[in-house]
Amino acid sequence: MDVRALVFDVFGTVVDWRGGVAREVRRLLGPAVDAEALADDWRGRYVPSMQRVRSGDLPWTPLDALHRASLDDVLADAGRADVGPDVREELVLAWHRLDAWPDVLPGLTRLRRSFVLAPLSNGNVALQVDLARRSGLPWDCVLGAEVVRHYKPDPEVYDSAAQLLAVPPSSVVMVAAHVDDLAAARARGLRTAYVHRPAEFGGRVVPPSADPDADWSVDSVEELADRLGA
Amino acid sequence: MDVRALVFDVFGTVVDWRGGVAREVRRLLGPAVDAEALADDWRGRYVPSMQRVRSGDLPWTPLDALHRASLDDVLADAGRADVGPDVREELVLAWHRLDAWPDVLPGLTRLRRSFVLAPLSNGNVALQVDLARRSGLPWDCVLGAEVVRHYKPDPEVYDSAAQLLAVPPSSVVMVAAHVDDLAAARARGLRTAYVHRPAEFGGRVVPPSADPDADWSVDSVEELADRLGA
Fold first, then answer.
1. Residue B167 Cα, gap to closest chain A Cα (Å)
2. Signal peptide: which range, if any (chains A, B) (predicted)?
3. CATH for B5-16+98-227 (3.30.70.20, 3.40.50.1220, 3.40.50.1000, 2.50.20.10)
4. Which of these, A44, A51, A193, B163, is most buried using a 10 Å CB contact count?
């Protein structure tokens, strides 16, 4: 199997969005807010907001702007319509300040010796740059939704990974903690690796321990490096 | 002056295309070919080949494919129509195997502590990834022609740098050894830094020692780091 590149889902797979957003919510809104519930609510509006772009209802809109728009509803529903515009802008940047799961940096560092690595996320380029700088993620480039102006699971996103890296789709491994992302990648000819992230949703939802349709199912990026001989 | 990001022209500014292409030509075609003359001839067809895309005469075509097409003419004119297709493919990869000028890695390493860094080149993404891995260039992401499907000096390329990095154009510095690239960037509101590269054309053409219209004119990326306090 001629693996040349690994492309990664980021929110949930590489970084802990729930813990990071909740931390920033506490910092900016104080202890009276249920920060985890707010993070969950905000994240719950993620797929519907992208769906409006995917369906053509909205023109191309980067994720930061979708987060900014959905935040107004989140705060209204949390009884915090009083939060001012500057704090709202700062809250959007919570998504740029998420920490990587502990296995990510050692795993990527090993994988990068043998493979080209890139995020293939719905997060915009500036957000990916901020996350990478925060955690020292050794990406070779930033691929994903904003580069191709389509949101996953649109096929254009997966196709763009192989095209821009100039390798066959079967040489690219999509790495994700979400079976739907992997299924969409597989439909475009990419290999797939499932990473089990039981803490992504704080225990509210427990993801499956493995994806039977994936080429690899692992519990960490370090285990993926083991399995790929990196 | 609020500088947030530096984006770099690559061929000539970051890497020595002439020396690298000539080295690969010698390796693949042997000593009977004038390798530097072949490199110069190939490079001479670069702007006209991109112009066919810029004018709409050709659909979007990545630089590797333009290099592959112009190589046929280069070899025919050099009396080497005998060169087989596998060697031609390998010759195209010469442009992925160029070495950085000696000041580049130390300069970028310093600049990266304070600024976001990215190539903004007409070379395709896979080519930039190969160059970065070869020389250890610490880019935060890969921007440029292929991401936006326009060749410099089309304004879309310069505009995309600020848009994708989510900063104002005036916070982005275009760094190049070519005054026309800098003039086009300046017309889109970017700051500009000129790097004097007297060896780019092997002494055939001597570029000006400074660009009076640039915000900075320097002799190396290290000097640029000095000037920006990095």
1. 9
2. none
3. 3.40.50.1000
4. A193
